[in-house]
Amino acid sequence: MTTTEQTGDTIAYRTCPLCEAGCGLEITLAPPGGDRTVARIRGDRDDVFSKGFICPKGSTLGHLHDDPDRLRKPVVKRDGHFVEVEWDEAFAAIEHGLLPLLERHGRDSCAIYLGNPSAHSLGPLLYNRTLITALGTRNRFSASTVDQRPKELSAAMMFGSVTVPVPDLDRTDFLVMLGANPYASNGSLCTAPDFPGRLERIQARGGTVVCIDPRRSETADRADQHIAIRPGTDAHLLAAVANTLLTDGLARPGRLAEHAAGLDDLGAALRAYTPDAVAPVCGVDAETIRRLAHDLAAAPTAAVYGRIGTCTQEFGTLASWLVDVVNLLSGNLDRVGGAMFTTGAAGQPSTKGRPGSGRGVRFGRVVSRVGHRPEGFGEFPVTALPEEIETPGEGQVKALVTVGGNPVSSNPNTGRLDAALASLDFMVSVDPYVNETTRHADVILPPPSPLQKSHYDLALLNFGVRNVANYSPEVLPLDEGQPSEWEIMLRLSAVVSGDGVDADITEIDDAAARSLAASAVRDEFGSVHDRDVDELVDAVGDRVGPERLLDIMLRTGPFGDGFGSDPDGLTLDRLEANPHGIDLGPLQPDRIPDLLRTPSGKIEAFPDQMRADIERLAASLDRDWDDSMVLVGRRHVRSNNSWMHNVRVLTKGRNRCTLQVHPDDADRLELAEGSPAVVRSRVGEVTIDVEITDVVRPGVVSIPHGFGQNMPGVQLRVAQEYRGVNTNVLTDEQFFDPVSGNIALNGVPVTVAPSPAG
Ligand code: SF4
Q1: Exposed e or buried b for every residue in 589-610, given b needs 16+ CB within 10 A?
Q2: Residues 181 and 251 in one domain
């Protein structure tokens, strides 16, 4: 932190942890000395990646810190009410409530759910594994099967690890986006602060931006071309684009042809997907699809980027796979201006082990107890959680630990999950709020506010459109007696493992550090192969907790100092000396074959799972796609799932939680602007204000997610005032992508009618 001479104010630099963009923030703390508070937050103009960009959410970290509803101390439920207690008492309550249950019913009787905030905070990122191991349960769930598992899975199938190609936004000439609205979300699985500015610079340098989305979103509105596709049919359209590239002689995988397996089989498998055949399915005319393929092939460089809309649908894995098939066939994979691979400074699987091949990733080794849903990356799909709680028998889930996240808000069929959580015998949440989910907890352990935590975007910098490393120390001190988040994670781990409330967590942390160093030492292709583990751990010095683990990861990573072998390499000390981050350069081409970790040493261009699932896509060609009205989601730049709705400066203004309906549908259904409508699905119904607009295509209605936080017991005073509904009352846990288990939040069949109360 620096002190300005004129005012005496302190300036701190911090990466914003709220979304995947990871913008640099300049935070002014005042008054000098003593109890400092946040006086101002603005974009850090010297940040090597974001260069001063900030969205409305980033400037509200001070509001989050000061939010009177944010828990400062643990709470324990007594007689149906939360009572604030000291930390020792909270951990004792967990030991008292959970351990007898585990002894009686076995370890699988306690499930764990890792929410989206876990991926934005160093403590959970580095110690979730410790907690999972301590719990010893097979019933592991996370938000990944809500929004991104299809892309993780397709990347793992094709490249052997979760190494997701990202569009080279700063150099591409032609960008095609499906199911993405970066003007609202600032990007996802593609870390790019000021994503909108990067899109505008594509256009400014003469390039083209195409947006494929059922809604004319903020991004589609500014694109050079908007293709208003029918929800859930991205895989059909991409299959037709790939087929056109093949049949019109436009496919040019170039040097990657010799590194790809299965390319020769694609032509026959995709033959049925002509632009004419998929046009009525996608609701897009055949000529538009044909022209898209030709434009992609003709562009000097091009990249196809599919995001949340392509994952949250019934053909999510097929769509995610086909995005990269098109990148491969059009000659744009792993080249400058195309779809490229980030070299993350820490934690990227494709920079470890033997270059060019590996064990790959296996899925479906076990299935869930009730619905026989296959695991992926050691987790079951979240859609399986309610039935695992509801269904009696050996292995029934009777307790739950949540770390971040708000599944009652974000998971499908809110009514069912909410009732299931209410039936649990015991629940623990690591969370700063009493929200729709944590109101069911018996004990809530609140982590410090984001400004009281250090930060390194360990997960998200591995999807950057530049290679960047950026570490921020905590901006504000912990309160007296308040543990840091990693200490909470380790104390909880000790309690659930049976080591007791007084267990020495430094021993657990030491073991984690030694285990990490040992893994690096075992890597015969790494920079510290065969070095002494203790020597490496000692070399980190006095650091403990996340900083020690992060330093080991950075120093043994692709840019690291190798604990002395490259004195100019990256260390945490160097990052601390560079508060605006370190730019490690543009993404590099020709990473294939070295980055591959498939057993074959090839890009699996047509993986077995896709060969099997394409039959399902073929069968859907004959479906009556005009049969029903369907629901899609949306997002606003002032919102972020359910996280930010208790910040008044973000929620003020017009009601954003409306039902968007096309004028033709409004006429047909006799819906009036601003009047309430009842939306029904197989699993529930909501009453919501109508917004008549042609931004949605006919047959499609849209409701944003994360609202409707006025359930009994929720302690979010600002969010509860908001006139919104929870769209997941309508989404259906039985509507999902069977390959990944990812829920289909888009394309949910619904009926809409004027509310009788209106
Ligand atoms: S775009 Fe994301 S990371 Fe950047 S300021 Fe906004 S919320 Fe924070």
Answers
A1: eebbbebbbbeebbbbbbbebb
A2: yes
Burial of 247 (0-12, 13-18, 19+ CB in 10 A): middle
| Distance from C-alpha of 189 to C-alpha of 459, rounded to nearest angstrom | 10
Share of the chain above pLDDT 70, in %: 99
Q: Which of 569, 588, 616 is the last residue of a domain?
A: 616
Which protein residue's CA is at the shortest distance from atom 6 of ligand 1?
A: 55
Q: Is the same domain home to 662 and 605? A: no
> Distance from the CA of 470 to the center of ligand 1, in angstroms?
15
Nearest alpha-carbon partner for 169 in 214, 219, 215, 216 = 219
Q: Is the pTM of this model over 0.85?
A: yes
At residue 647, the pLDDT reads: 87
Residues 533 and 638 in one domain: no
Note the helical H segments in 18-60.
none
Instruction: Report the distance separating Cα 697 and Cα 685, nearest Å.
Output: 22
User: Quick one: what percent of the chain has pLDDT higher than 90?
Assistant: 91
Domain total in the chain = 3
Token duo for residue 207: 């390039």
Which CATH number goes with the domain that contains 697? 2.40.40.20
The answer to whether the beta carbons of residues 730 and 743 sit under 8 Å apart is no
CA nearest to 30, candidates 1, 53, 69:
1
Is residue 489 within 8 A of residue 483, CB to CB? The reply is no
pLDDT digits (tens, 9 = 90+) for 302-328: 999 999 999 999 999 999 999 999 999
DSSP 108: G
Q: Pocket around ligand 1: residues whose beta carbon is below 6 Å from it?
A: 16, 18-19, 21-23, 54-55, 57-58, 186, 193
Q: What pLDDT, on a 0 to 100 scale, did the predictor assign at position 1?
A: 67
5 pLDDT higher than 60: no
The verdict on 562 and 693 lying in the same domain is: no
Instruction: Give the amino acid at 652.
Output: K
Same domain, 274 and 300: yes
- The residue whose CA is least distant from atom 4 of ligand 1 is 23
Residue 300 shares a structural domain with residue 231: yes
Average pLDDT over residues 63-79: 96
- For residue 447, is it within any domain? no
Report the distance separating Cα 153 and Cα 270, nearest Å: 21
350 in the same domain as 227: yes
CA 100 to the chain's CA centroid: 35
Residue 191: the pLDDT is: 96
User: Ligand 1 mean position to 145 CA, how many Å?
Assistant: 23
Q: State the SS3 of 379-415.
A: ECCHHHHHHHHHCCCCCCCCEEEEECCCHHHHCCCHH
Question: Which residue is listed with tokens 């300036």?
Answer: 11
Domain for residue 194, yes or no?
yes
Q: Give the end of a domain, one of 562, 591, 616.
A: 616
- How far apart are the CA of 25 and the centre of ligand 1, in A? 9
- Token pair for residue 238? 């991409």
Nearest ligand 1 atom to the CA of 194 is: 1
Q: Whole-angstrom Cα distance, residue 326 to residue 332?
A: 8
CA distances from 737 to 112, 231, 365, 732 (A): 22, 14, 18, 12
Cα of 450 from ligand 1 centre, angstroms:
13
Q: Which of 234, 241, 232 lies closest to 212, judged by CA?
A: 234
- Name the residue range of residue 527's domain: 505-580
